[in-house]
Amino acid sequence: MTMLQVERVTKTYRGGVLANDDISLDVAAGEVFGLLGPNGAGKTTLVNQVLSLLVPDAGRITVAGVDVVRRPDEARRLCSFQPQAAAPVDGLSARQAVEIIGSIRGGRHSAVRTRTGELLEALDLGEIADRPVRMSGGMARLTGFCMAAVVPGRVVVLDEPTNDVDPLRRRALWQQIRALADGGAAVLLVTHNVLEAERCVDRLAIVAGGRVRAIGAPGQLKAELGAPLRLECTLDPESPAPELPPAASLTARTGRRLLAHVQLADVGDAVAWAQHAQDQGAITEFSVAAASLEDVYATWVQMEGTVA
């Protein structure tokens, strides 16, 4: 069942800045849908319209069938939201902040207390849960997620939920995001962390320049673009870097790490080149792997001339 429907939404700011240009997408119950794009792509503008904080110039948005322009209060009650900024919880403990939001959202006291405890433990916040102190950025982000998830709406909007979160807790957070969808919510995940999004999303939209450039499941988008293979090499620090073969296209070089893209038809030539370079001592190791969602994202951004 479709919980969030965005139909041909356009928004222009003063000065003629076109933030959203004819955007359409939908998110079903039980689905994690990624909204992926560089800074300035129009993601935040779209989120603000979904939450009835901005009115579209054209188009229509519904949350569980409720029009967000005609019935904004009702539509807003059907959503829960973690903003990009850390939750302002100074002076409260994490447990107090989450339980207060749960009560405001109409949860029963006993259910809110139980759910709060479960979330705090799942995200390894048990030790600081009852300390009314100023939290680090990561702890505040995790608390903000708990506030959005304690009594989740039919649509849950998460804006960069993993910012400043350490790797172990980040893994637990992705599990909780998945659990929200498995519990029946439609999750709209806003991010530019492509590698992490690939682990969690069912479908995604790549947004650039205010428009949806591609939409679908990660595997589908890779297939549609004929996404290249990744050739990764570790350069020998004592040898000059070898010149790439015509079959390979340089993507990045960071320190001793070299990353290039190779089309499937050319992978044999690329591997032969890498083996020869390794025999000559120019590289110490290499690998060829399937394209990632990051490769798809980079391809679309380059195609559209958008700078991340």
Structure report:
This protein is an alpha/beta fold. The protein has 2 domains: 222 residues, Rossmann fold (3-Layer(aba) Sandwich); 63 residues, Alpha-Beta Plaits (2-Layer Sandwich), CATH 3.30.70. The protein contains 10 helices and 14 strands. It has a 6-stranded mixed β-sheet with strand order 6-7-8-3-9-10, sandwiched between helices. Strands 2-1-4-5 form a 4-stranded antiparallel β-sheet. The chain starts with a strand and ends with a helix. The mean pLDDT is 89.
Lay out the secondary structure:
Layout: E1 2-13, E2 17-28, E3 32-36, H1 43-50, E4 58-63, E5 66-67, H2 72-77, E6 79-82, H3 94-104, H4 109-122, H5 137-149, E7 155-159, H6 167-182, E8 186-191, H7 194-200, E9 203-208, E10 211-216, H8 218-225, E11 229-235, E12 248-254, E13 257-262, H9 267-279, E14 283-289, H10 293-304
Parallel strand pairs: 3-8, 3-9, 6-7, 7-8
Antiparallel strand pairs: 1-2, 1-4, 4-5, 9-10, 11-13, 11-14, 12-13
Helix pairs in contact: 3-4, 3-5, 8-10
